[in-house]
Task: structure prediction
Amino acid sequence: MLEIKNLHARIAEDGTEILRGVDLTVKPGEVAAIMGPNGSGKSTLSYVIAGRDDYEVTEGDILWNGESILEMDPAERAAAGVFLAFQYPMEIPGVPTMEFLKTALNAQRTSRGEEALKIPEMLKRVKAASSELEMDISMLKRPLNVGFSGGEKKRAEILQMKLLEPKLCVLDETDSGLDIDALKVVADGVNHLRSEDRAFLVITHYQRLLNHIVPDSVHVLYKGRVIRSGGKELALQLEDQGYAEIIGEAA
Amino acid sequence: MTAHTLIKNTQAESALIDAFAKSIDTLPGAATTTTARKTAIGGISTRGLPTRRVEEWHYTDLRNRLKTVPEGDARASGDALNALAEGIARIDLFDGNVPSDLPTGVQVTHLRDLLERGELDRSLAPADPEDVIGALNAAFVSHGAALTIDAGAKLDKPLELSASHGPGQAHLRVPVSVGADVEATIVERQTGEGAAFVTGVVDLTVGDDANVLWVLVQEQAVDTDQLTQMKFRLGKNARLTLAILNAGGRLVRHEIRGVLEGEGGDFQMRCVNLLGGESHVDVTMVLDHIVPNTTGTEIVRNIATGKASGVFQGQIRVAKEAQKTDARMACNTLLVSDEADFSAKPELEIFADDVACGHGATVAEIDEAHLFYLMSRGIPENRARALLVKAFVAEILEELDHEAISEALVSKVDDWFSKNG
Ligand SMILES: Nc1ncnc2c1ncn2[C@@H]1O[C@H](COP(=O)(O)OP(=O)(O)OP(=O)(O)O)[C@@H](O)[C@H]1O
Ligand SMILES: [Mg+2]
Result:
C-alpha cells in the first residue's frame, strides 16, 4: 500500500515549493488516476516517489507497505517495487538496451535474493514482452531509447515495466504520444499486469486512456495538492466540464 | 655520427645512440638508406629528445618521460593474437607473409625488400626537426610491410595489420597506397608484452573517390613505451575514417599528420583514449586543408582514471585557397579520479575567409538525469555510473561503418573497464 501524507517538496536548486501537502492512499490492486492542469505537480509527484534528488521533501512522508521510502535512493526504491514510466523517457547514447535491461533486472533480482537470469532466459522474456507490446525486437539493438519515436519510447517504458514486474507502477502520461492503436496495445499491456498485489498511479489528461485502463479512483492535483478525489465518474465529469468548477470549489 | 654532442645525453638517449651504433651494419637498406638513417639519428644525438620547451612536445616531455630503452629485437610471433573480429585477413608485420585469404586487389611487399632496394629513402626523411618519431623510426626501422590496393578494388573483408611484440625494440613502417575508387577497411593492432620500446609509421595515400575505414587499436602493456605516427594524404572525393582506441601502454604518443589534397575530401576521426594507472597517452594531430571544399570532423573522448595523464593536441590549418572548408573538432574528457589529468589544445589556423570551422574542449560530467533514469530501474549507483562512463566513449565507436568491428571495439572498452574500472 502506498500512503502519501502531507507531502511537501521543493526544487532543490532554488527552493521553489511544488508539492504543498499531498495526501493520497493507493491500496494494493488499486488503479488510481491522477489528473490536473499542466504544471500542477503531477510529474513532480512521480519523481519524488521515484527518488529523484532534484527535489527535496521538506515535510510529510511517503510510506510504501508501511515504511518510509524517503531515505532510499532510486535504485533501492526500484528494488522495493517502485517503477516510474517517464513522461519523457530519456535517450542514453552508448548504453545498449539489452545490457541495460539485463543489468536492471538482475540487480533487482539479486537485491531480492533471487538468482540472476542467464542471457537465454532473459532474451525469452524480452521477446515475449515485446511481441505482446507489438514492438520490433530489432529496436532493442539500439542504444537505450536512442532514435525511438515518441510512441516507441512510451512502449519501451511499458516493456521495462513488464520485465521488472514492479509492485507500484507510476505511469506519467504514458498515453501522450501514442497513436490510437498503440494506446490500446499499451493499455492492454498495463491491464495484464493488474493484479491484487500491484498498485497503479496513472497520470493522464485524457479520459481516452481511462476507457482502456479503468481506474478505481480519480484524484485531481492542483497547485501541489489533491483538491478532489472520486470514482471513475469524476474523470468523465472533468472531460465534460474542465477543471474550472472544481478549482473554484476548492478555492 | 655527429662529432660533437651538445648536450649530456640521458640514459634513454645514450641507449638509443648505442643501439644504433650496434645495429647499423645489420639494419636492412641500400647504402643510401644507411645515410638516411645516420642523418636521422644524428638529429637526435645532437639535439637530444625533445623537452617541454619544444612546442609540439610541450605536454609530453619526451626527454624526461622516456626513462629507458630496452635492448634487442622485440620481434615475436603474433600467433597468440586473435583478429579483432571474424572474417579478417591478417598480415603479421614481423614476418610480412601474405595470408592465404588475402582479398583480391591487395599486394603485400616485405618492407625489408623495399629498404634493400633503397625505395624508401625519401620517405624516411623526417618531416621537420620536431618530427622525432619519424626520425627515430627512420633510424631503426626493420619490420613492416607495404600494401598496395588496386584502383577499383572493393575488399570483401577487412585487413588486419598486427605486430604483437615481445620485450625489446620494434620499429615498424607500413607504406599503404590505396588506389582510386577503392573500398577498404584496415585494422591496425598495437599490442605485445614485456618491457618494450616501439616506434611505428604508417604512410597512407588514399586515391580519388576511395573510401577507407582505418581502425587503430592500441593495447600495449604497462611497461611498453610507444611512439607512432600516421601520415596520410587524401585525393579528390576520398574519404578516410580513422577510429582510434587507446587502451594501454605506459608512454604513448600517436601523431596524425594529414593532408586533404583533393577537393571533396573528407576526414573523420573518432578517437577514444582510456587512460589508467600511471600511463601517459598523447594524441597529436596536424590536419591541413589545402584545397577548396574539404571536410573534417574529429571527435576525441577521454576517460582518465588513476594517476594517468592524457594529451590531445589538434591543429587544423586551413590554407588561403581552401575556401568552403568545413572543419570541426571536439575533445571531451571525463576525469574519473582526482589524480588523473588531461590537457587539450585545439587550434585553428585559418587563412581562408569562407569557411565553417569550430572546435571545443570540455571536461564532461555524468549526466545526473541519465543516472536517475538508470537507478530508477534498480541499477545501483556505482553500476549506473560505470555504465554511463562507458557509454560516454562507446557512443562514438558505435557508429562505424562496420558493425562487427564496432562491437569488437566496444567489447575492448568493456575489457579495459574490467581491468581499470
Ligand atoms: N526541476 C525543475 N526546475 C524548475 N521548475 C520545475 C522543475 N520541476 C518542476 N518544475 C515546475 O513545477 C511545476 C510543476 O511541474 P510538473 O512537471 O510536476 O507539472 P505537471 O503537473 O506534470 O504538468 P504537465 O501536465 O504539463 O506534465 C511547473 O511549474 C514546473 O515548471
Ligand atoms: Mg507532467
